[in-house]
Every structure is written in C-alpha cells, then in structure tokens.
Amino acid sequence: MTPAERPVSGTGQHEAPPRARGPWARAWDRFKRNRLALISLIFCALLVLVAAAAPLIAPYHFGATDYANQLVGVGSEGHVLGTDQLGRDILSRTIYGLRTALIVAFGAELLALLAALVIGLTAGYRGGRVEQGLMAFTDVMYAFPSYLFAIVMVAVLGRSIIALIIAIGIAGWVTQARLVRAQVLTIKQREYVEAGRAMGASGPTIAIRYILPNAIGPLLVTTSFAIPAAIAAEAGLGLLGLGVQPPTPSWGAMISEGTRFLLAAPHMLLAPAAVFALSLLAFTWVGDGVRDAFDPRGEQR
C-alpha cells in the first residue's frame, strides 16, 4: 500500500478538513491575546455586578446620615472610607454613584445606538432625498457641541436619571449614525444583498437581516468607546450641578463637594475620583481591545 492509499484515521476514512472559524470567533481570539483588555473586561464586569448589587454590598443607604461622625477619616467609627460633611458614608455613596454612572451610561448609549441605527440604516439604504434630508439633519447636530446640547437638555428636562439618559443619548448618536450609513453604502452593493433582493425580500428585511449583522463590528468598536464617554459626561454634568437630584449620589457631585473640603477631609475627593478614574481607564482599555480585535490586520500580528 502506497502512502497515498493509507487511511488517515483508524476508521479507514479521511478526516474532514477543519471547520473555518467565523469572524466573531477570530475577533474573540485576538481580544483574548490582549492581556490588558481582558483584565479590563473582567474589571468592568465586576463593576457592573457591584452596581447591580449595591443595596446588598453598600454598608449604609446612600442618604443615611450619622451626625455624630461628620467628616471622619478613613476607617473611623465603622466607616471604611470615612464620611462627608453630613455624616454620610463615602463608601456607600461611591458604590451608589457607580450604579448611577452605569445606568446613565448604558441607557444613554442604548438610546444613541437605536437612533443611529434607525437614521443610518434608513439613509444608507433608501438613498436619494431621504438620505439627503437625514444627513443634513445629522450634519446640523454634528456641528452643535454635544456637551452643550446635553446641558441644554438637562436644563429643559430637569435633573433626573431619565433626563440624563435622554440628554446624553440624544447628544451622542451622530457619529454612530454616520458610521452606520457608511457601512450600509458599502454592504448593500455586495452579492448576498443582491441575492436577497432577487428572492423578493423587502427593504426592511434586507436592511435588518442582510446588512445590519455585517455592520455590527465597527459599530461595536464605537459603542465600546462611547460608554466611558457617557460616564465622563454624567460626572461632568454632576460637577456642574446638573446631575441627578440630591441626595442620589453622583461621582461628579461627590468630587465637587470633595474639592470644598480638600484640606480638612481629602478622603471625600480621593475615593470617588479614584474609582471614577479606574472605571474610565478600564472601559477605555476594553474599547482599545475591541478595536484591535476587529482590525483585519490583527491576523498578521
């Protein structure tokens, strides 16, 4: 028996060729090779769990006051990170501030993503005057400073978590809408989209079933960077006194209060500022990892 005639496996049959990995599996493999991004993803997942379990983890309610222990330092009288000027526990308020930040950030990004998908898909697929009108509106919104727009929206809607979600979400959809439109213009000319049209698929079906799944990669990259931007926007509004209504904690409001007592009680500033900075870094590093994972050149690295 010649080598060419020998069976490859013990069953006497040739082994099937290895199955090709999909783009999502290859992207995940590239993401896992980025140690910093993977550790940051685990840290972000822990932040989400802490925020979800805030009532169980926080030692006190965020509004509970201990008038006998105002402005006490770290580790004093049962307060791990001390208290503020009203005797409220800093650790508890930092944990609940994390909850506020993540609710606003994820809610605003979900709203921005929905607006971007509707406008970007419609403009890119329909074309013509519909595209011109939607892109003209998008350009007007792009020219308007997004942070200033968020301030105006909060001033109009009031200080609440819902108002912050709407304000930051409406101010942040423009870049993603332009990206979705660009992706649709490229994808709608491909053969499988033409095949869908030939089989009689309707416009919404083609846009949602054939075009949208292939535009998710770049959109996921922008979303991963938009979340830390929304966290920073929420804290910035709180720093300006336009965040959630007190006594609901916000990192921005806590940092603003901490600067007033910096010399007498530096722990009021350091605790929320440190968690805020670590959270921004972690989400940003996750965004870097997602961007590299969906970079086609990553295969050669």
Automatic annotation (TrEMBL):
PANTHER family, sorted: OLIGOPEPTIDE TRANSPORT SYSTEM PERMEASE PROTEIN AMID, OLIGOPEPTIDE TRANSPORT SYSTEM PERMEASE PROTEIN APPC
Main location: membrane
GO CC terms, sorted: plasma membrane
Transmembrane segments: 36-58, 101-122, 134-155, 161-180, 219-244, 264-287
Residues of the ABC transmembrane type-1 domain: 98-287
Name by which UniProt lists this protein: ABC transporter permease
Keywords: Cell membrane, Membrane, Peptide transport, Protein transport, Transmembrane, Transmembrane helix, Transport
Family designation: Belongs to the binding-protein-dependent transport system permease family. OppBC subfamily.
Superkingdom, natural source: Bacteria
Keyword Protein transport belongs to the record: yes
Gene Ontology biological process terms from the UniProt entry: peptide transport; protein transport; transmembrane transport
InterPro entries: BP-dependent_transpt_permease, MetI-like, MetI-like_sf, OppC_N
Region ranges (Disordered): 1-21
Organism of derivation: Phytoactinopolyspora alkaliphila
Membrane topology of this protein: Multi-pass membrane protein
Subcellular location: Cell membrane
